[in-house]
Specification:
Length: 318
């Protein structure tokens, strides 16, 4: 039986995580597994495919936030991923289990997917992707049973995987790792790491982004990566504090970014860095800052080494 706890969710932000349009030069967006949104009577009309994921956090000011990452794909046209951010008012005796009830979670899943489809059409219009008139003129309908399935999948994932993971890593999550001030050195170190990862995973056509996402997110949980990125990008305005689990995953991403920047495709990444103002002298700040971050978090790095979490990204990504 579900709790009678009254929880109010406030949608306060939609982030476009990434968008790719199909083209002969960009074919790997076609490798995507999801659920059909609807079955059109005309077989010539492409079918939307959707799926979703989730994450959640408690901010430094003790505000609870829940995220639904919605994917939408239209074969031969494009693929989009958005994050819907929801806030919850402070409630006594609240547990994350309380969100993962069919009646509650279903509302968020449906809302996030509707926003995903809306922004898919909007992004296609902005990026010059000409969609079939049937798609533009009529909002895609989301069958109730598909929403039920997606909701059930998230609930099963939480209780079977996420909750046990959080319990097993409770000490690392509660433990302070580092607080970074908004200084130039740390801003460059954090921003360049994230920028390189975004190029390798989402944007740069010189990389096999689909394959790279599969490999990287097999090690760093995808939804967790987006949450960590959101937390880090505010460093230019305020200090950020990372716990042991967060710095563990960030150092993995930093190691990956450095290896890719110095690898055989590094010239392509250097072009992007220079075009955004990260010239050679600024890149030196990144290398120095990255080394300093590793040194400051030596215990976390040592734990990674002992658990054999050192990766040859040259060979794993392409």
């Amino acid at each position: 039986m579900e709790k009678t706890l009254d929880i109010t969710f406030d949608l306060f932000k939609i982030d476009i995580l990434w968008f790719e349009k199909f083209s002969p030069e960009n074919p790997d967006v076609e490798n995507f597994v999801g659920m059909n949104v609807d079955e059109p009577e005309d077989s010539d009309i492409p079918m939307f495919m959707v799926t979703c994921a989730y994450d959640f956090s408690i901010s430094d000011t003790q505000i609870r936030e829940f995220y639904v990452d919605a994917y939408a794909k239209l074969p031969q046209y494009a693929i989009l991923k958005i994050r819907a951010h929801y806030r919850m008012e402070e409630i006594p005796d609240f547990e994350w289990d309380d969100v993962f009830m069919p009646g509650r979670l279903r509302v968020l899943v449906e809302n996030a997917i509707q926003n995903g489809l809306y922004h898919f059409i909007k992004q296609c219009a902005a990026r010059g992707v000409k969609l079939p008139s049937e798609i533009v003129e009529h909002e895609p309908e989301i069958p109730a049973d598909e929403i039920d399935k997606l909701t059930a999948n998230l609930i099963a994932d939480y209780f079977d995987h996420r909750k046990p993971f959080l319990e097993a890593n409770a000490e690392a999550i509660a433990m302070h790792a580092i607080t970074l001030p908004p200084s130039q050195n740390w801003i460059v170190t954090i921003n360049l790491t994230l920028m390189i990862m975004e190029e390798v995973l989402f944007h740069n056509l010189h990389f096999n982004r689909r394959l790279n996402r599969e490999k990287f997110f097999d090690i760093v949980p995808e939804s967790f990566f987006y949450s960590l990125r959101n937390k880090c990008i505010v460093l230019s305005q305020q200090e950020i504090t990372l716990n042991q689990l967060e710095i563990h995953y960030f150092l993995i991403a930093q190691d990956c970014a450095l290896q890719m920047a110095m690898g055989e495709k590094g010239d392509f990444l250097n072009e992007v860095m220079v075009s955004r103002g990260f010239v050679a002298d600024v890149q030196k700040i990144w290398y120095t800052g990255a080394a300093k971050l590793v040194e400051l978090c030596r215990g976390t790095v040592q734990d990674s080494i002992e658990s054999q979490e050192k990766f040859d990204w040259y060979k794993m990504l392409s």
